[in-house]
């Protein structure tokens, strides 16, 4: 029986990983394979999804998670050979990826026969200004969506959700728009009961030249970080950062790993899992527009955060 694919797209920091984590945590007996297409040398997203690490891992509810490295067909083929094979495959794209290219790859007849693309979900940050949709990448992510999920409504100012809905409607996309409080989306929308029906016909549009717009700068250390110094460093770097995420131990709470997230000008910390064997104690990935932040400047700012 074919295994339907749910493709999750959305811009940097929109909340895609939160949505995927909620799906896995509330799988209700479904065998779900989660595939992460991260952007950068350190695959933080694979670790943040249900505690995944080391590329491929068995999860508590029978799900699996792997990073999307190399050929998509090879990755999906590996998943479909598992025994038992998954009932659904969830692919989380990078926040800087044009999903049209991934949709085009998934239209390959070999993939379509074994793993048809069932649903494209675009996660949109409700705290973002409607002008964000003027960005070509945002529009491309919306254009291929069947469902648009508004995230971070609890953080948005009053009326922001309504303004974003109006901005989405102005793009004339046929997608259904739903609220996704804390990553929660009705499972019936994402996992239709009738999985035997033929997949919808999709036309991702003409292939466009790839534009190198973002770059990642990675930083690692085997020593804990001073949280107060990190706050100062992020405040200085924030105007030039599109996104940052990482895992580290702090001087203030030795022996306890923390998950760091920076998006849309906001930084958050949450408890994290112990690092994989051999992984640095502190590692952060920074994403910025090309050329606005040098590696030397970033390393200097972060080294100043390391405990003496």
From TrEMBL:
According to the UniProt entry, its GO molecular function terms are: hydrolase activity; nucleotide binding
The residue ranges of the CobW C-terminal domain are: 214-306
User: From what superkingdom does this record's organism come?
Assistant: Bacteria
Reaction equations catalysed = GTP + H2O = GDP + phosphate + H(+)
Note the Pfam families from the entry: cobW, CobW_C
The UniProt entry, under CDD domains, shows: CobW-like (cd03112)
- Known role: Zinc chaperone that directly transfers zinc cofactor to target proteins, thereby activating them. Zinc is transferred from the CXCC motif in the GTPase domain to the zinc binding site in target proteins in a process requiring GTP hydrolysis.
* Protein family: Belongs to the SIMIBI class G3E GTPase family. ZNG1 subfamily.
Protein name per Swiss-Prot or TrEMBL: GTP-binding protein
Q: Which species expresses this protein natively?
A: Bradyrhizobium cajani
